[in-house]
Amino acid sequence: MPNHSSSLPVPTILVVDDTPANLKLLVAMLKERGYKPRPAVSGALALAAALQSPPDLILLDIHMPEMDGYEVCRRIKADSRLQEIPILFISALNETMDKVKAFSVGGLDYITKPFQSDEIEARIRTHLELRSRSRQLKERYEHLQRLEALRDNLTQMIVHDIRSPLFVVKSALALLKPCLPAKDHESADIMRAADESLSILSEMTSSLLDIGRLEAGQMPIQKTRQNLAETARKACDMFAYSAAEKHLLLVAPEPVTATYDEDLVRRVIGNLLGNALKFSAKKGQVKITVTREGNLARAAITDCGPGIAPQFHEKIFEKYGQVEGEQKKYGVGLGLNFCKLAVAAHGGRIGLESAVGQGSTFWFTLP
Questions:
Q1: How many Cβ atoms sit within 10 Å of the Cβ of residue 285?
Q2: What's CA 189's distance to the chain center, in Å?
Q3: Are 127 and 119 in contact (CB under 8 A)?
Q4: pLDDT digits over 164-215, tens only?
Q5: What is residue 66's DSSP assignment?
Q6: d(C-alpha 319, C-alpha 337), whole Å
Q7: First-to-last CA distance in the chain?
Q8: DSSP assignments along 126-167, one per residue
Q9: Architecture label for domain 143-215
Q10: What is the pTM of this model?
């Protein structure tokens, strides 16, 4: 006997068979087992009954006049209101059953006549439990989607409000710079560090806002013919102060031109460069290499950090994806996702070459 909690409805089972004796036997058997059977003597009546009140499971005879079980199953699975209902076919041992066809139209299992009560009970219970778990997973997934949408909306609002005070602070620093004594090098260094940090923070807030637009395909992209090596040089200028204790090297043997949105690509390089500097040791080398590969322009940022295991090379580009290393978390959760979306919006590719203990090379190509 199934264990139906008093707080849960009794599972309803639509039983479809054009033979009254079989129908009566199945209905009695299901009632005895604690289910709520609903009989139907034809495919047309079964469809009407299912649409009027969808059951939890359907036992469906295959060989019926006018509309056989295959056609009934096909129509049920074609209806969005009914397609999740598990269907178990019924077939006599002496009848020909096309099992491939039965499964191809959406059947999940089959029961043979003469009926065995324990077998029917076991199969019904199994498929009802599977459907219940499937429903729970779907509900949890939808709940997570709602939470993610709420988080994204909240993040967007917070970041949007942050931009104004950031602009005020950056403007204040610009006004204070001329007031510093010419020989006050310590204060000048502090101002440069603060200004660089503000620039990085501004880039992060822009990335947060732009990820949503890139995902929705609403990001305006202004493509012009540019030299990728020069764009990389502009990105390097953002990190002049933080790179002072490290060896930052730009390698560009020749001009590499491509058509892209310079602001977006500069920010991509800036994100990758910021990560490389963050995870490289003092006096370590961070190298940006700009080359041409056939019809592609390629930029690669190589660091001397602790490296990233191969199984995390895809995850690190996911939204809010972070990878735990021995000492730090790799990826800020959004920066690399922004890079992936921005490069994809140009029809390019992005990737990572890395191994634990051997540093990392983040690269991207543009057509």
A1: 15
A2: 42
A3: no
A4: 787 788 788 888 888 878 777 788 888 888 887 887 787 777 777 777 778 7
A5: S
A6: 5
A7: 65
A8: HHHHHHHHHHHHHHHHHHHHHHHHHHHHHHHHHHHHHHHHHH
A9: Orthogonal Bundle (1.10)
A10: 0.52
Which pair of structure tokens corresponds to residue 83? Answer: 């397609």
- What is the DSSP secondary structure assignment for residue 295, as one 8-state letter? T
Burial call 171-186: b when 16+ CB within 10 Å, e when fewer: eeeeeeeeeeeeeeee
The percent helix, strand, coil of the chain (3-state, each to 5) is: 50, 20, 30
- Residue pair 316/352 in contact (Cβ under 8 Å)? The answer is yes
Tokens at residue 301, please? Answer: 């940022």
89: left (phi over 0), alpha (psi -120 to 50) or beta: beta
Q: Which CATH superfamily is domain 224-366 in?
A: Histidine kinase-like ATPase, C-terminal domain (3.30.565.10)
One-letter amino acid at 234 equals: K
Which pLDDT tens digit goes with each residue over 241-300? Answer: 666 667 888 898 888 999 999 999 999 999 899 888 888 877 788 999 999 999 999 999
The first and second tokens of residue 193, run together, are: 């560090």
